[in-house]
Amino acid sequence: MTAPLLEVRGLEVDFLQYERGLRRRAVPALTGMDLTARAGEVVALVGASGAGKSLLAHAVLGLLPPNAVERGTVAVDGEPLSPEQRRRLAGHGTTLLPQSASFLDPLSRIGRQVRRTARLAGHADPRRAAEQALAERGLGREVLRRYPHELSGGMARRVLVAMAVLTRPRLLLADEPTTGLPTDLVRTTLREFRVLADAGAAVVLVTHELRAALDVADRVVIVRDGRTVDVADPAGFTGDGAALAHPYTRALWQALPGNGFRVPEVR
Amino acid sequence: MLRADDVWFRYGSAQPWTLAGVDLQVADGEVVGLCGPSGGGKSTLARVLAGHLRPDRGRVTVDGSEPRARRGPHPVQLVLQHPERAVDPRWTIRRALAATGAGDDAIAALDEELVRPTWLDRYPHEISGGELQRVNLARALLTRPRFVVADEITASLDAVTQARIWALLLERCRAAGIGVLAVSHDRLLLEEVAGRIVDRTPVPDRGPA
């Protein structure tokens, strides 16, 4: 069996902060993250806000700030890589689909930014590739001349998806790509990830929306307070969740509106 | 009774109408769900009801009269999706709560389920998003409102935290007879929390008759 495209083992991240004067303290952010994504898979990373999901995605890309201290291994194609090595892969096989439109350059028109992405990804005709990628997502040529602040939230999200797909990623890390989108757009966006995975990519879908993730995910990784607590089969999320082994995973399922909306007894 | 009668609103005279002749009633102690796609004017209606925006036509009334500014807290309190945008990042939780006019006693007497005493001297970024949303709710409730408009208050939270926050809000409002307008794109959520659900669809582009 070939090595998984991405394998994260026991990843811990601390942030060093200055307290008073030169005294430093380490604030733990991730305390034991495990994640495996194989080619052809969509892996959903689900957990509460503040559980460290986005941080994990940024760590995989080597994009943590300088005051972060990292332990554990992140291997790509079976080879453990340093943060610097991972950073070199960013945009070259590994792509982050960021959480919000604030990752777009506010002072540059959409057309220019998407064409740049297409050019950097080595498309022969960046202009056509950019227009086509936007058109496939229902965005006409008029969008090319707009600035990011002139797009609605849903349009900006589609622009980001178009840019991510243009990079032809082997590994896509999608960070909350559907928050705030209407239901039909959520489904369309998630289907894009399924198509990418079916074509041989590995997709890590970071989300707090469990129900939407179940439609496309091959596996669901549940994280809580900076660590991986469970890896569950999407088929187990049915009925009252009796098939789910881990109590927190079951609590998440049973707390969903329509599944009982139950509040667990203990915090 | 909170009423909107034939409310029209647009963001500037050259813009299309966002709200065109909206009528809505929420009775004391009633929980009404407001559902609809994004861009349908749900949040605009929420802000008009809470007095953050003034309607171009029509009236918003509480018990038959329009709430006056500068007579204490507005009887309709708005709670928003992103709690971190609703509190001053340089104020401690205690100071944010005290800004409602509540005294030390009232803050100390807050239910621990809603706000833990250990959070009071922390800053907003030192507690989690779900915890900060509970502070945000507590702040709205400290003003002793007649109505709470909850605009996607749990849309960025996980399911467990969502269920916990709604349980707290509904229990408090039931006890005090506060009416609630729950705004969400999530129909399943509204079916859990609301007694009845009102649908909003985007208005066609036309002027008032």
In short:
The complex is a heterodimer of chains A (267) and B (209). Chain A is an alpha/beta fold and 267 residues long. Chain A is 30% helix and 27% strand.
Beta-strand percentage of chain A? 25-35%
The helix tally of chain A amounts to: 8
Oligomer: heterodimer
Indicate the radius of gyration of chain A in whole angstroms: 19 Å
Shape label of chain A? globular
| CATH 4th-level superfamily of chain B | P-loop containing nucleotide triphosphate hydrolases
Order of helices and strands of chain A: EEEHEEHEHHHEHEHEEH
CATH topology call of chain B? Rossmann fold
Radius of gyration of chain B, rounded?
Answer: 17 Å
**Class based on secondary structure composition and strand pairing of chain A:** alpha/beta
- The termini of chain B sit apart by 27 Å
Helix proportion range of chain A: 25-40%
Number of domains of chain B: 1
Give the biggest sheet of chain A. Answer: 6 strands, mixed
What is the overall pLDDT average of chain B? 90
List the secondary-structure elements of chain B in sequence, H or E. Answer: EEEHEEHHHEHEHE
Quickly count the helices of chain B. Answer: 6
Give an overview in words.
- The complex is a heterodimer of chains A (267) and B (209).
- Chain A has helices at residues 53-60, 83-89, 110-120, 126-135, 153-166, 183-198, 210-214, 247-254; strands at residues 6-18, 24-37, 42-47, 68-76, 79-80, 94-97, 171-175, 202-207, 219-224, 227-232.
- Chain A has 267 residues and is α/β, with parallel strands linked by helices.
- Chain A has 2 domains: 1-93 and 172-267, Rossmann fold, CATH 3.40.50; 102-168, no CATH class.
- In chain A, helix 3 (110-120) packs across helix 4 (126-135), helix 3 packs parallel to helix 5 (153-166) and helix 4 (126-135) packs across helix 5.
- The longest helix of chain A is centred in the C-terminal third of the chain and has 16 residues, at 183-198.
- In chain B, helix 4 (129-142) packs parallel to helix 5 (159-176).
- Helix content of chain B is 28%, strand content 22%.
- The mean pLDDT of chain B is 90.
- Chain B starts with a strand and ends in a 10-residue tail after the last strand.
- In chain B, strand 6, helix 5 (159-176) and strand 7 (179-183) form a beta-alpha-beta unit.
- Chain B is globular and about 45 Å long.
- Classes of the chains: A alpha/beta (267), B alpha/beta (209).
- Chain A binds chain B through residues 46-51, 152-154, 179-183, 208, 210, 251-253, 255-258, 261-264, and chain B through 37-39, 128-130, 155-164, 166-167, 185-186, 188-189, 191-192.
